[in-house]
C-alpha cells in the first residue's frame, strides 16, 4: 500500500478494504452524507492502524464535492461553510489562540501554488495586535502567515524556516496548506483533506522533506490540502476502467473478458502500468488543463474558511 502514490487517508483505507469486508484495526471511521458534499472522518488510534494505513496517528477529515471546481459564489460559500465547520471542531473556539499559517509549495508552478495563493488571501492580524498591544479582541484572533517557498528557490529547507519562525513568534498552533497527490482522477481538485498529523512537504510526488508536525515544531500542526495532481499510471488505470465500463455496457461480444480485466484490483493494475512506464521515465505527474482557474478558486475557499474559523467577527 505504501508504494501507491497518495496523500489521502481515505484512499489508503480504500486500498486496504478493496477486497476485504472489514475495517482496519486501530482505525475509526465515520461518514456523513450532505446534499452538496460528503465528509469522511478517519482517526488512526494506535500503532497497528498507523502501520497498515502508512499514515501518522491523528484525525483525517476529507470533504468531497464537485462544487470545489465551481467558481460561483453560492457553490463556494457552501464548501467554505462546510470546511469552516470541520476546522472549528479541530481548532476549537478559543479566541486567544495565536496561529501561524504556512503556505507550502512553489508559486512558480501552478499545480503547486495552492499554499502561496491561499496565504495571499488570509487575513493576517499579528502586526495589529503588536502595534496596539492587544492581548484579546472580540472579532479577531492573532494570525501570522508566510509562504516560505521551496528549497530549490531559497536553498533553505522549508522545515528549517518554519521551525525558526515558530521559535521566534511562539504561536499556539501552525496550519500548513499544500497541494497533494491522489490515486484517483475523480478526486483531483474535488477533495479537501484536513489532518491533525502534520505534513511532509513534497511527499505526494516522492520528494519527501522533513515533516512539519507537533514532534518537530513543539506545537499542534494542522494540515490542509487538496490533491491537484495524479501520476500517469493512476490516470492510465482510471482511463482503462472507464473504457472497460463502456465496452461492458455496449458490447455482448467479449463481455466475459472485459469483466475479468475489470475484476483486477486497483493496486494490481496500478503496479502493472507503473512497471511498464517507469523504465522509459514516462510515469509523469499530470494536472488538469484549467488548473490556473481551479487553484484561484480553491485558494478563495480555503482562505475564506480559515478567516471565518479564526476570526469570530467575520461573517
Automatic annotation (TrEMBL):
Protease in keyword set: yes
InterPro entries in UniProt: Pept_HybD-like_dom_sf, Peptidase_A25
Subunit note: Homotetramer.
Name of the gene: gpr
Post-translational modification: Autoproteolytically processed. The inactive tetrameric zymogen termed p46 autoprocesses to a smaller form termed p41, which is active only during spore germination.
EC number: 3.4.24.78
Catalytic activity annotation: Endopeptidase action with P4 Glu or Asp, P1 preferably Glu > Asp, P1' hydrophobic and P2' Ala
UniProt-recorded name of the protein: Germination protease
Species of the source: Tepidibacter formicigenes DSM 15518
Amino acid at each position: 500500500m505504501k508504494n501507491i502514490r497518495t496523500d489521502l487517508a481515505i484512499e489508503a483505507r480504500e486500498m486496504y478494504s478493496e477486497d476485504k469486508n472489514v475495517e482496519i484495526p486501530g482505525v475509526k471511521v465515520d461518514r456523513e452524507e450532505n446534499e452538496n458534499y460528503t465528509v469522511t472522518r478517519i482517526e488512526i488510534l494506535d500503532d497497528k492502524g498507523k502501520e497498515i494505513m502508512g499514515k501518522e496517528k491523528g484525525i483525517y477529515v476529507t470533504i468531497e464535492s464537485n462544487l470545489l471546481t465551481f467558481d460561483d459564489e453560492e457553490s463556494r460559500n457552501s464548501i467554505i461553510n462546510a470546511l469552516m465547520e470541520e476546522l472549528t471542531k479541530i481548532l476549537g473556539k478559543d479566541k486567544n489562540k495565536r496561529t501561524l499559517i504556512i503556505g507550502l509549495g512553489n508559486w512558480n508552478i501552478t499545480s503547486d501554488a495552492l499554499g502561496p495563493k491561499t496565504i495571499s488571501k488570509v487575513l493576517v492580524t499579528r502586526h495589529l495586535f503588536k502595534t496596539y498591544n492587544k492581548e484579546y479582541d472580540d472579532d479577531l484572533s492573532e494570525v501570522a502567515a508566510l509562504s516560505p517557498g521551496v528549497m530549490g528557490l531559497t536553498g533553505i529547507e522549508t522545515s528549517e524556516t518554519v521551525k525558526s519562525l515558530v521559535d521566534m513568534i511562539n504561536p499556539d498552533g501552525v496550519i500548513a496548506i499544500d497541494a497533494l497527490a491522489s490515486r484517483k482522477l475523480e478526486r483531483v481538485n474535488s477533495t479537501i483533506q484536513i489532518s491533525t498529523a502534520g505534513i511532509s512537504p513534497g511527499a505526494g510526488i516522492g520528494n519527501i522533506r522533513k515533516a512539519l508536525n507537533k514532534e518537530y515544531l513543539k506545537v499542534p500542526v494542522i494540515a490542509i490540502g487538496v490533491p491537484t495532481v495524479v501520476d500517469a499510471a493512476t490516470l492510465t488505470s482510471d482511463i482503462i476502467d472507464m473504457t472497460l465500463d463502456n465496452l461492458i455496457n455496449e458490447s455482448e461480444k467479449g463481455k466475459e473478458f472485459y469483466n475479468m480485466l475489470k475484476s483486477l484490483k486497483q493496486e494490481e493494475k496500478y503496479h502493472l502500468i507503473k512497471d511498464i512506464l517507469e523504465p522509459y521515465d514516462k510515469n509523469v505527474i499530470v494536472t488538469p488543463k484549467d488548473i490556473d482557474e481551479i487553484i484561484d478558486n480553491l485558494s478563495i475557499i480555503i482562505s475564506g474558511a480559515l478567516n471565518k474559523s479564526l476570526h469570530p467577527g467575520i461573517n
